[in-house]
Amino acid sequence: MRIYRIRKFPTRLLVFFLIIGILIFNIKTRPGLKTFAFSILSMPFRLVSSAKSYFVNNSNISAENLSLKQRLAGLSVELSRMEEISRENNRLRNILNFKNKLPYQTVAARIIARDSLDWRKSVIIDKGKKDGLKEHMSCVTPKGLVGSVSEINENTSKVMLISDPASRVGVMLERSRESGVLVGAGVGCD
Q: Alpha carbon 7 to chain centroid distance?
């Protein structure tokens, strides 16, 4: 029985306000009283309209928030890609500067594979006989000596790293000018 009364209450209230409104507007009253009565009577409608605007705007904000989150995720991926391109650009610029500073002809190569049994011993580069490489040529980076060409094919070469225990390199100490032979220890060189 109580549920029945709750459902009828808003309808009865609405009918009451309509009847009061009709009576007030039919009677010749002062403009101030008429305006006051109109603002009182229109209050429920304004509240409903405000609530509707709030919920519509809130759903629009939620949709916009979701859209912005998706855009942010896409931009984060793009930023990561751009940072990687920037790092690669800096590496390539350093290699180019290094190549231009050397007094002899050089060939830039890329590591395309590592020794599957022990990656510290050798790598495969993407240059070979057709690029002018020969066995026992030195392989260097801006950080120093890496190794020497141990096997050569038409398009690729195998480079024995200085960390390979079979590697032997003639060296000279900078301060004392003593010379010796550097033997690979089988550990990675960074």
A: 55
Query: β-pairing, 168-172 with 179-183?
Result: antiparallel
Helix, strand counts (H, E) of the chain? 2, 7
Here the tokens at position 102 are 């050397």
What pLDDT does 47 receive? 78
Q: Locate 109 and state its tokens.
A: 């190569």
Beta strands in the chain (DSSP E): 111-114, 122-125, 138-141, 144-152, 157-161, 168-172, 179-183
Per residue in 71-103, pLDDT (tens digit) is 999 999 999 999 999 999 998 888 888 777 878
Global pTM? 0.51
Any idea what DSSP says for residue 165? Answer: T
